[in-house]
């Protein structure tokens, strides 16, 4: 009974903490950052994984629907657009209340089994966070009465979970609660990310305070979710979440050095790229420009995520569309290491087919992009870094500020999203279950479509493609994955959408997908079969270059530097603005550029959470 009382007191203290924070303006951003990260983490690390354990990938789809559908409706012109956020808010509050009941039930079961102390503190802090979230989300828009009534309902449901015992547990087991919680959890994520604005306490100060709250939220998640996870079955955190985190860290480690290189090179190009180079890439016909773009990108050891900052820098410097888009596709496709791996792991004909089809696809997409991507208007102030009267050191410093500040701010949220999707979807490729259920004639389009959202570098994709062929996939299917995987991912579509609009990003994906499918079928028609080399003994291991387990090498150093850059971006922008770049409603027209992140010019007020 003592644990129940502590749980109820913690839940009731949540609104008090939110009220006190509202009376201290400097605390508003801190609380907002804490609620934003900790509550989002609870949904993604507890609610959705538990639902996936029950209903599989359907849980992920339902959560995405709860997250994205309200956003799409809000951006539409339908009459219900104004009500979409309110509906998502209702669903989100229901999710909190149901989770309150599950907390009570889990605590009662743990007490009965004699191990409540193992995670009792986690339950209490969960309840504090839930109480804060209810008040934080309802009070600004619906008033005190509804907020207090909801708090009272949370108390009753917590009591119902405690006293319900096995009867309630049987009801939860028989009801499709996992599907409901996944959908409601996604709606709650929408509400958290799109919380109503409130008065600010100063632009930079609010962003930094909010980021501080976000760090406290991360510490909360690490201590009371990853270490003392509270589930209905009273087990530690679901192994699927641990596997996801391992894959995410491995992918981030493999991506760190190319991204750091790309940000640095892009900044230096922004400052030092001579007009003669841009004029060289702009000469001749569109086909010649496309060929020059491919030649310019071939010697650069940059993968799909890393080429994005370079692409953005080039188009903002005035490089023609055909050249820039061809570079965007060809650079990650035609790495020398990936080509050599194709020769050694598969065979010569397959490696040659990969090079030829990648070049054809890059040039074709570069030419087609002229119809749906309009050149960005280059502003005069973007060319200042190339003025000859500026000292070389000043130009380099300005360029590095652009590369390591502005480009990081513009790309970091999309990179995190792309790596997250890759970590979540990669098991579909690595095990044989996905391939076993695909008819032979659908293998090529299936693997082409699967590669579109997944980030995997060209060299990392090569062993995987060889394993797929050894497991029975056709050479064309493996090649289709090699064409779409390294050239595209969720980050690519996000950056293209920011620069050129969503229509251009969608058409880019369609061109890449159709081109890869066509190349795959052509290779299957030309090559009767391929000879797989050492693929049977190779598995995709993104951490293979990081040294022995437990050691600290260059890969960990690069990952730490990249994490520091992303953390600095969050402190400049604030965590809410960081997330809204991916999930929010765009406020600027496509192709617009932000002011320098290293100055205060052109910055808008950072909104604080809650409401008046």
Textual characterization of the structure:
This protein is mainly alpha-helical and 612 residues long. The chain has helices at residues 2-23, 27-55, 58-75, 81-113, 120-174, 177-193, 203-226, 239-272, 275-281, 286-297, 304-316, 321-333, 336-345, 348-368, 392-430, 433-436, 443-451, 458-470, 475-487, 490-500, 502-526, 554-573, 575-583. The chain has 2 domains: 2-237, no CATH class; 268-529, no CATH class.
Radius of gyration using CA atoms only: 26 Å
User: Based on helices, strands and strand pairing, what is the structural class?
Assistant: mainly alpha
Helix content: over 70%
Main beta sheet: strand number and arrangement? none
Instruction: Note the gap between the termini.
Output: 38 Å
Q: Classify the beta-strand content into a percent band.
A: under 5%
Tally of extended strands?
0
How are the SSEs ordered, and which strands pair?
Layout: H1 2-23, H2 27-55, H3 58-75, H4 81-113, H5 120-174, H6 177-193, H7 203-226, H8 239-272, H9 275-281, H10 286-297, H11 304-316, H12 321-333, H13 336-345, H14 348-368, H15 392-430, H16 433-436, H17 443-451, H18 458-470, H19 475-487, H20 490-500, H21 502-526, H22 554-573, H23 575-583
Helix pairs in contact: 1-5, 2-3, 2-5, 2-6, 2-7, 3-4, 3-6, 4-5, 4-6, 7-22, 8-11, 8-15, 8-22, 10-12, 10-14, 11-12, 11-15, 11-20, 12-14, 12-19, 13-14, 13-18, 14-19, 14-21, 15-20, 15-22, 15-23, 17-19, 17-21, 18-19, 19-21, 20-21, 22-23
């Amino acid at each position: 009974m003592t644990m129940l009382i502590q749980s109820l007191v913690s839940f009731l203290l949540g609104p008090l903490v939110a009220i006190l924070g509202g009376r201290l303006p400097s605390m508003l951003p801190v609380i907002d950052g804490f609620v934003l990260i900790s509550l989002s983490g609870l949904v993604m690390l507890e609610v959705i994984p538990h639902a996936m354990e029950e209903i599989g990938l359907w849980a992920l789809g339902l959560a995405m629907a709860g997250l994205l559908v309200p956003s799409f409706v809000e951006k539409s012109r339908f009459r219900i657009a104004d009500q979409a956020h309110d509906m998502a808010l209702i669903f989100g509050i229901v999710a909190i209340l149901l989770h309150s009941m599950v907390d009570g039930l889990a605590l009662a079961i743990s007490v009965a089994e004699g191990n409540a102390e193992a995670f009792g503190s986690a339950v209490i802090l969960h309840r504090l966070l839930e109480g804060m979230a209810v008040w934080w989300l309802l009070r600004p828009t619906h008033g005190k009465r509804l907020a207090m009534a909801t708090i009272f309902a949370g108390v009753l449901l917590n009591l119902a979970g405690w006293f319900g015992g096995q009867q309630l547990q049987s009801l939860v087991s028989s009801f499709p609660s996992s599907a409901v919680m996944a959908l409601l959890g996604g709606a709650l994520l929408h509400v958290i990310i799109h919380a109503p604005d409130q008065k600010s306490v100063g632009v930079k100060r609010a962003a930094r305070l909010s980021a501080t709250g976000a760090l406290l939220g991360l510490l909360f998640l690490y201590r009371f979710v990853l270490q003392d996870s509270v589930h209905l079955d009273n087990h530690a955190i679901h192994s699927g979440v641990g596997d996801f985190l391992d894959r995410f860290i491995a992918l981030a480690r493999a991506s760190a050095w190319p991204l750091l290189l790309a940000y640095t090179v892009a900044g230096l190009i922004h400052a030092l790229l001579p007009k003669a180079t841009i004029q060289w890439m702009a000469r001749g016909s569109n086909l010649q420009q496309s060929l020059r773009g491919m030649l310019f990108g071939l010697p650069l050891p940059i993968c799909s995520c890393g080429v994005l900052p370079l692409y953005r820098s080039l188009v903002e410097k005035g490089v023609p569309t055909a050249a820039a888009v061809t570079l965007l596709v060809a650079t990650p496709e035609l790495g020398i290491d990936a080509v050599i791996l194709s020769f050694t792991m598969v065979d010569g004909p397959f490696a040659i087919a990969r090079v030829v089809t990648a070049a054809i696809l890059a040039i074709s997409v570069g030419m087609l992009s002229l119809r749906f991507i309009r050149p960005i208007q280059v502003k005069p102030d973007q060319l200042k870094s190339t003025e000859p009267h500026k000292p070389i050191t000043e130009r380099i410093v300005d360029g590095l500020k652009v590369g390591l500040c502005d480009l990081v701010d513009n790309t970091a949220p999309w990179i995190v999203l792309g790596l997250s999707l890759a970590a979540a979807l990669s098991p579909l490729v690595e095990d044989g279950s996905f391939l076993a259920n695909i008819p032979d004639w659908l293998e090529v389009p299936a693997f082409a479509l699967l590669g579109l959202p997944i980030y995997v570098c060209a060299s990392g994709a090569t062993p995987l493609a060889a394993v797929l062929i050894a497991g029975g996939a056709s050479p064309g299917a493996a090649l289709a994955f090699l064409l779409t995987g390294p050239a595209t991912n969720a980050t690519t579509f996000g950056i293209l959408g920011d620069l050129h609009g969503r229509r251009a990003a969608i058409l880019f994906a369609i061109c890449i997908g159709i081109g890869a499918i066509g190349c795959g079928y052509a290779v299957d028609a030309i090559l009767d079969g391929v000879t797989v080399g050492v693929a049977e003994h190779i598995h995709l291991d993104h951490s293979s270059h990081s040294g022995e387990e437990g050691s600290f090498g260059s890969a960990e150093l690069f990952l730490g530097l990249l994490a520091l850059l992303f953390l600095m971006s969050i402190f400049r922008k604030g965590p809410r603005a960081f997330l809204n770049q991916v999930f929010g409603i765009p406020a600027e027209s496509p192709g617009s550029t932000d002011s320098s992140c290293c100055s205060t010019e052109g910055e808008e007020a950072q909104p604080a959470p809650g409401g008046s």
